[in-house]
Structure formats: C-alpha cells, structure tokens
Amino acid sequence: MSRLLHISASPRGDASESLAIAGTLLDAYREAHPGGTVDHHDLWDGTLPAFGPTGAGAKMTVFGGADPAGAEAAAWAAARAVFERFDSYDRYVFSVPMWNAGVPYILKQFIDVVSQPGWVFGFDPEKGYTGLLRNKKAAVIYTSAVYGEGRGPAFGADFQAPFLGDWLRWAGVGDVETVAFRPNLATADAGTGRRAAHAAARELGGRL
Questions:
Q1: Can you tell me the mean pLDDT for 200-205?
Q2: pTM tops 0.85
Q3: For residue 106, what are the contacts with CB-CB under 8 A and spacing of at least 6?
Q4: Secondary structure of residue 185 in the 3-state scheme
Q5: 10: phi then psi, degrees, rounded to nearest 5
Q6: Average pLDDT, integer, range 137-142
Q7: DSSP SS3 for 89
Q8: What phi, psi does 186 have (nearest 5°)?
Q9: Helix-, strand-, coil-residue percentages of the chain, each rounded to 5
Q10: What's the rounded Cα separation, in Å, for the pair 18 and 25?
C-alpha cells in the first residue's frame, strides 16, 4: 500500500492557506486510498537538526571517501535519521507558502539536511549528479499573498516554485504536480481563487 508524507513549511496553523489546501488534498487522497498511510512532518516541530559546521564537515569527509567521527559522526547520524524517515514514503505532499520571494528557511534547512551523497544524490566527476529518489511522486501546494504570474515586478518574483521543483527533479522525483493559490490580497477578492485551488487539490488528491 502507498505511504504518503505531508511536509509542511508554514507555521501559521489554522490561519495557513497552504495547510488548508493541503488538507483538502489529503482528505481526497484518504478517500481514494483507504488502506494507505498518511503521516505529517511539521518542519516547525523542533525535531529538525541543524546542519552547520560539524554537519558540513561530515559531508566533506564522506565526499572524501572516509567515515565521519566524533561530533561529525553524531551530526551525520542525526541527518541520516531525517533522511530515512523521508525516504520511507513513496508519495509526498509539500505545503509551501512564499516567504520573501522564496521558500521558508525551515524548508531550505530540511533540504540541506537530507541532500547528502549516497542518499538523495550520486555524483560522477564526468557525468555530474544523479538523483537517487526513485519511484516516488510529489504534489506541491504553493501559496503567495502578493506575487502572482503576470503581475509587474513591484509585486515580487518567484524563486519559490523554481527552487523546490528543481530540487525535486534533481533528487530523482520526476512525477511532480502542483496547485497554486496566488491572490493579490491587497486588491482582489480571494474567494474565487481559493475555491479553484481547493477544487484542484481535491482532484489531484484523488489520483495521487
């Protein structure tokens, strides 16, 4: 049976548009997969380890063909635990609000923790990177309050969807679908766009 992990990057709880749309998708998914597993990784729950000097040192040690030791080994083990949880699922739902034209820093932290050689990617000096996340699907919920396609540069730019979409493809997840809710909250009635986003999420959840 399928196993799905919802990875949420919004800290806003019931006030979050991305979490609400993801909830609609997940309800439809549960209806379509009554025996499947659905779990939630709230990136703000305090369990995500830092990946600082010791983690970076461990990564470079592994790149050099050696095994991390001491504090580096502990940092590597903490990162490995996050990756193993992530890798144990075959379907992902990411709920991602736009922060300062990009993704919330906590999502970037998650990506930096799990994106390690031999886990998410392989590397060949002549051929470059190879994604190692195989036979997986992802759905991504993107929200933004001001930025929207076709609006002028004064309304921001999109480094959110290109960044996450590129990372998923780089990691080997080739089957990626998206739902976007991007109203201009300063001037527009968001109701029509919100209903459309929930309808799209419901449809996607039924066939993910």
A1: 98
A2: yes
A3: 9, 11, 43, 44, 48
A4: coil
A5: -100, 135
A6: 98
A7: coil
A8: -75, -25
A9: 40, 20, 35
A10: 11
